[in-house]
Amino acid sequence: MRTAFQKIAFLIVGTYLIVTLVASNQIARSNPSNDVKNEENCLVDRLLGKECILPPKPKISPIPTPSPIINPTLTGKERFIAALMNQFPIIPQPDTYEYILLRAYGAPFVNLKPAIKLPEKVAFKNHQETLEFQDNITKGKVKGTRNCYLQKPAADALNKAYYQAKFRLKSGYGNSDCIRDFATTAKFWRKYTNSRTLDLVKQGKETRILGTVAPPGASQHLWGLAIDLKVTNKKQITALNQNGWYRTVEYDVPHWSYVGYQPETLLRLGFQKKVIGRTTYWVTPL
Fold it and tell me: For the chain, does the N or the C end have fewer beta carbons within 10 angstroms?
């Protein structure tokens, strides 16, 4: 039997209102000559439970339109859950370990781009599960590095940002800053935690640690959709955001996640723009 939370989530997908379609059309008309933008809007419509057919290319320049209207009926959390249901038909219950991990690291799960491969769970159990996933992704090399690899669409987007504003890896070592294996994530967890930490996280009593290190099997680095960078100025941040890269894990300043969409699209999907200190994070609304 479905829980009340699951029923609400399914209802969101089934009853997503016409206002969202208006928002989608407005975004598309704001720059219809940009095929990539139109495709992105189409993907977002599908994330939110709507069918989408790309419009024909316009023959004339459009008249600028106002910013897209966000559906006032649905909260940001509800829009985000609707998007997540494309990857997780059954959303984990609040306060479960899976939900806690999804809240902290779930940002990339809204990416519907065909070339992106997403895990079917929020955490891998062991090295074998991790290896099976990583063996089935297409990797691309990050420019200016020796051994830094990511999923190819993520690497391609990062390389575009790199040409706009140069930046460096945090440590300079690809096997720690880029795609990691299960053993490396487990080693980092042991470095920053003790024998009780994981139990406290599972109980929801300790979550700040998730901004320092991910539990074994839960890191976005295992998916090839995260990288640790030295980013020191606004130009670098703008270049990364414009190419789909964001800080999505609170308090983890060097950590960047590939979500794949423009900032206005993240707002439409329910993401929250949160400033802590002088650092801006784009966090899930769970």
Answer: N
Mean per-residue pLDDT over the chain, rounded? 83
pTM exceeds 0.85, yes or no: no
Residue range 166-194, pLDDT digits in tens: 999 998 887 889 999 999 999 999 999 99
* Bridge-based pairing state of the strands 272-276 and 245-246: unpaired
Could you tell me the sign of the dihedral formed by the alpha carbons of 240, 242, 244, 250, in that order?
positive
Q: Residues, the chain, total?
A: 286
Report the alpha-carbon distance of residue 202 to residue 193 in Å, rounded: 14
Distance of CA 255 to the CA centre of its chain: 12
Going by DSSP bridges, is the β-strand pair 168-169/149-151 parallel, antiparallel, or unpaired?
unpaired
